[in-house]
């Protein structure tokens, strides 16, 4: 069964940090780019970050540049999102998803997709 499962969400105060993890199974992980998306209440889902299969190329949406860092450990089939200097606007459900070889900002082009983990940043 092909799946990705997120973990690491929670409640944190503004200025704090969280590290999200996403572990994949049932696929050849090192052939997949891995993306992080988020959806806040009443807003559309947006692409947050993406890392190519090799880890050599990463992308970030402007609002998280300098605060979030994406990385991967292909030996563990796991991708991470280190989130620092968190703001209340970062509150959302964070989703992990895989895409063959390359990144995209289109949620619909990613498969498999996780069910999400809640991140809440209090002011």
Concise summary:
This protein is mostly beta strands and 123 residues long.
What does this structure look like?
The chain has 123 residues and is mainly beta. 0% of the residues lie in helices and 50% in strands. It has strands at residues 3-7, 10-13, 18-25, 32-39, 46-51, 58-60, 68-73, 78-83, 92-100, 117-122. The N and C termini lie far apart (40 Å). 34% of the residues are buried.
Features:
mainly beta, six-stranded mixed sheet, 0% helix, 50% strand, globular
Element layout with pairings:
Blueprint: E1 3-7, E2 10-13, E3 18-25, E4 32-39, E5 46-51, E6 58-60, E7 68-73, E8 78-83, E9 92-100, E10 117-122
Parallel strand pairs: 2-10
Antiparallel strand pairs: 1-3, 3-8, 4-5, 4-9, 5-6, 7-8, 9-10
Question: What series of H and E elements makes up the topology?
Answer: EEEEEEEEEE
Mean pLDDT: 97
Lateral strand order in the biggest sheet = 2-10-9-4-5-6
Put simply, the count of helices is 0
Secondary-structure-based class equals: mainly beta
Helix content: under 10%
Sum up the overall morphology in one term. Answer: globular
